[in-house]
């Protein structure tokens, strides 16, 4: 009996689900211990200013255009033995060759990624300093002139650009089906983030402490991912690299980039819109509420994310029946997990901040519930969209752009007309209007039409 238990524990230890659970516990601990400490120590205005900094970094990072997911897919394809450059909507088993690693393709992909992300990092740095900095000067000049907020923002911009220059490594590692290793890296990165944040805030560094934590976390994740990937798949200099250029990824990238823009406008952009319409205190309350719901989103989403490499391999081999079964099972687990996490946090998270008498609180409970519903719809729709993209298909470009544009328009109009209540309603109304039902209908129709086969 003991041997059986030990054997089960050993198998579980080596699964992505186990490490997902550990990360879940760690993030929950962060919301119970780290976030309340930060909210208790820092004024709401400083917390709001930090989320504005993070929002600007997220906005400027859109210039990456969605190359990372396609680099991840190309990594999967070359590790599966694909010999030719995959074209849009055409990734099948007929190009797999002898299923050995395509070392030339992998070498060329890495060389192209290094050049590309160096240029992207420089572009992000310029945009954050002049674009984001100019908006902060016009909108929040008094808050920025206080203390050392300008130097902090500049340092954060440099850290964001440096981290982005190595971003593709943290995509290539899990794409090579080293999910457990990638999650272990994430686990360590989160711990480093918490430690740096706690130390910085405790020492009175204010917003700098938050920037330190974020930069340390992302930097460690990128560099450690690179180290492990190069260990698993060392660069063979004897093999001439396939001359891959960014334009080879462009037919998929511009589509993914537009979809990413639509997704950004649908929810993440609402933090900056909130900062434009309301004050920093309201922005802080909305931002920590959105972060709370996104925590539930990311934790639940792991059920499907850990299977992206397998789904891509199934697409390469044309095993559509296996894809349908896997996706159905994982989405059910994903949505059940999301509901459970949301119910738990909706009841206890606001109570915790009230007990600790923090300087910043969540938005009202009924608005928080509505926000959870909106993000839940986005979680379901995004899951279906991401599965289709694993097959190198991009049919949802315009629907996501329409949804994102509609969200921004409704947020601006309803936010000024009905206040924060109308602002929070905007994402839900946009999803119900078109995007949510359209993508669900499209995926169902396409999955029924796909040729079926089994994995014997």
Report low-confidence residues grouped into runs of 5 or more.
90-98, 452-456
Determine the strand fraction and express it as a percent band.
under 5%
Mean pLDDT: 83
Biggest beta-sheet profile = none
Fraction in helix: over 70%
Compute the number of strand runs: 0
Global shape: globular
Number of helices: 18
Specify Rg, calculated over alpha carbons. Answer: 22 Å
N-to-C series of helices and strands: HHHHHHHHHHHHHHHHHH
Q: How many structural domains are formed by the residues?
A: 1
- Helix-and-strand structural type: mainly alpha
Distance between the first and last residues' Cα: 32 Å
Question: How does this structure look, described?
Answer:
- By secondary structure, this protein is mainly α.
- It has one domain.
- It has 18 helices and no strands.
- The C terminus is likely disordered.
Topology:
Layout: H1 2-13, H2 16-41, H3 44-60, H4 67-79, H5 103-139, H6 141-145, H7 149-165, H8 169-175, H9 179-202, H10 207-232, H11 246-266, H12 270-277, H13 280-305, H14 308-317, H15 320-356, H16 365-390, H17 397-418, H18 420-449
Helix pairs in contact: 2-9, 2-13, 2-15, 3-5, 3-13, 4-5, 4-8, 4-11, 5-7, 7-10, 8-9, 8-10, 9-10, 11-17, 12-13, 12-17, 13-15, 13-16, 15-16, 16-18, 17-18
Task: Give a short overview.
It contains 18 helices and no strands.
Index terms:
456 residues, mainly alpha, disordered C terminus
């Amino acid at each position: 009996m003991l041997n059986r238990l030990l054997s089960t524990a050993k198998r579980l230890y080596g699964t992505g689900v186990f490490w997902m659970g550990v990360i879940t516990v760690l993030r929950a601990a962060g919301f119970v211990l780290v976030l309340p400490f930060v909210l208790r120590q820092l004024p709401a205005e400083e917390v709001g200013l930090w989320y504005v900094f993070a929002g600007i970094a997220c906005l400027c990072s859109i210039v990456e255009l969605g190359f990372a997911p396609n680099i991840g897919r190309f990594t999967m394809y070359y590790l599966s033995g694909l010999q030719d450059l995959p074209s849009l909507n055409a990734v099948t088993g007929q190009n797999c060759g002898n299923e050995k690693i395509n070392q030339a393709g992998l070498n060329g992909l890495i060389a192209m990624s290094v050049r590309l992300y160096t240029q992207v990092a420089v572009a992000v740095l310029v945009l954050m300093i002049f674009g984001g900095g100019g908006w902060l000067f016009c909108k929040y000049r008094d808050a920025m002139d206080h203390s050392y907020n300008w130097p902090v923002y500049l340092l954060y911009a440099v850290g964001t650009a440096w981290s982005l220059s190595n971003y593709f490594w943290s995509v290539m590692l899990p794409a090579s089906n080293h999910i457990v290793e990638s999650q272990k890296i994430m686990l360590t990165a989160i711990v480093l983030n918490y430690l740096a944040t706690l130390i910085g805030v405790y020492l009175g560094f204010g917003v700098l402490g938050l920037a330190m934590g974020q930069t340390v976390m992302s930097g460690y994740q990128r560099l450690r991912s690179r180290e492990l990937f190069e260990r698993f798949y060392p660069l063979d200099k004897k093999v001439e690299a396939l001359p891959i250029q960014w334009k080879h990824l462009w037919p998929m990238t511009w589509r993914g980039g537009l979809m990413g823009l639509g997704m950004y406008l649908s929810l993440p952009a609402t933090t900056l819109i909130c900062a434009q319409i309301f004050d920093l205190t309201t922005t802080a309350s909305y931002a920590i509420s959105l972060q709370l719901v996104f925590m539930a989103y990311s934790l639940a989403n792991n059920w499907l994310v850990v299977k992206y490499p397998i789904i891509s391999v199934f697409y390469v081999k044309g095993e559509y029946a296996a894809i349908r079964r896997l996706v159905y099972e994982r989405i059910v687990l994903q949505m059940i997990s999301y509901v459970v996490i949301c119910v738990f946090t909706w009841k206890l998270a606001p109570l915790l901040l009230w007990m600790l008498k923090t300087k910043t609180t969540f938005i009202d409970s009924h608005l928080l519930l509505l926000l959870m519903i909106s993000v839940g719809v986005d979680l379901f729709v995004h899951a279906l969209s991401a599965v289709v993209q694993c097959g190198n298909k991009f049919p949802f470009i315009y629907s996501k752009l329409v949804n994102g544009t509609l969200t921004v328009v409704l947020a601006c109009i309803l936010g000024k007309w009905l206040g924060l209540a109308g602002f929070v309603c905007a994402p839900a109304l946009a999803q119900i209007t078109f995007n949510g039902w359209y993508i669900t209908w499209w995926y169902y129709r396409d999955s029924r039409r796909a040729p079926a086969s089994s994995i014997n």
